[in-house]
Amino acid sequence: MKKTILALDVYDLQKAERLVKETSPYIDIYKVGPILFLQSGKEIIKIIKNNGKEVFLDLKFYDIPATVKRSVESAKELGVFSLTVHSIGGKEMLKAAASVENRPKIWAVTVLTSQITAPEEVIRRAKLTKSCGIDGVISSPLEIALIKKECGKDFIVVTPGIRLAKSDDDQKRVATPEIAVKEGADFIVVGRPIIEAKDPSEVAKIFMRVL
Ligand code: C5P
Asked: What pTM value is reported for the model?
């Protein structure tokens, strides 16, 4: 499976469909977050799957355990490949999410990459999620190696905040795709560098080539 996950952070279904079509030779998984899901959730999931691709549903569930468990069950019905929960929901919530049978993969957010934080806190949260049966975490490029060391090679690390060169946006903890993968990232999540490019297909191809 290709390592780049494309974040479809757009409002418009037609634009999202165009992005899927243009980049499909280089991308296997598309991330659908609240921006697009609230506009056209089921339609975009169908489009992605009809193109033979997988969906990463990034709604970062954070609620009481029973509600999160039912949310995971609903996501499973949609046929998504993976979804996110927020690690600050705590042990009971994480266990409830993980308890759903034949569920999508669950990746937990440790700390948002737009926030600055101590690595110890990221590790603490990563270990907590692993002990609750969660499959992996979303983590900034800076903590990948430490997470792999502390949680083991098979614990999936998905890394946003990836830039081909130095950028000037809200991501505080960034790295190039080469560095992220060298550090041990299983997947990288890329949004604006591809979706805001003049030629998204060309930039997606560059990401695929360097990985
Ligand atoms: O546009 P950009 O490449 O910064 O997009 C990164 C994507 O990863 C966004 O959709 C953002 O919501 C998501 N993300 C993140 N940090 C996390 C979890 C998800 O940047 N910890």
From this structure: 0.94
Tell me if 19 sits within 8 A of 6, measured CB to CB.
yes
Query: Distance from the CA of 8 to the center of ligand 1, in angstroms?
Result: 10
Q: Which of 189, 192, 194, 195 is the best mutation target for the ligand 1 pocket, counting ligand atoms within 8 Å of the beta carbon and taking the most?
A: 189
Q: Which residue has the tokens 């101590």?
A: 118
> Ligand 1 pocket, 200 CB below 6 A?
no
Instruction: Report pLDDT digits (tens) over 66-95.
Output: 999 999 999 999 999 999 999 999 999 999
Of 183, 206, 211, 178, nearest in space to 193 by CA: 206
Cβ-based neighbours of 55, under 8 Å, separated by 6 or more: 29, 30, 32, 45, 48, 49, 78, 79, 80, 81, 82
Whose CA is closest to atom 13 on ligand 1? 160
Sign of CA dihedral 203, 205, 206, 211: positive
Interval 41-70: pLDDT, tens: 999 999 999 999 999 999 999 999 999 999
- Which protein residue has the closest C-alpha to ligand 1 atom 19? 160
Catalytic amino acids?
60
Structure tokens at 56: 């990463």
Rounded CA separation 58/54 (Å): 13
Structure tokens at 122: 């990221």
